[in-house]
Amino acid sequence: MNQSDKEPRYVISVAARILGVQTHTLRYYEKIGIMEPSRSSGNIRLYSDRDIAHLRRAKTLMNDLGINLAGAEVILRMAQRMTELQHHIEGLETELKRLRQKKSQSGDSGSI
Q1: pLDDT tens string 77-88
Q2: The listed CATH number (1.10.1660.10, 1.10.340.30, 1.10.3730.10, 2.60.40.10) that belongs to domain 3-104
Q3: 3-state class of 110 per DSSP?
């Protein structure tokens, strides 16, 4: 997802309609920590495309796979952590490649 996917754009009633849930369901998800929407200067909840995608995944886990809300929350947090770790690994691999190239250019025969 790109930066524009993080931009808050939907009020709670529109987000609920997109997801096919009631607004009180979204308020409950916020209360228990599944989702924390942005707030406008007037304290109105605003949901981004990324928030909608996150809630869709939670809804799929619960409705299609029969996982309870607590289980869906754990799965979503683990998936997020795995994504973060994958990005970290990619950064380390890039750095390792850079160091190997630098070392080969300097003519050093030691191993990295």
Answers
A1: 999 899 999 999
A2: 1.10.1660.10
A3: coil
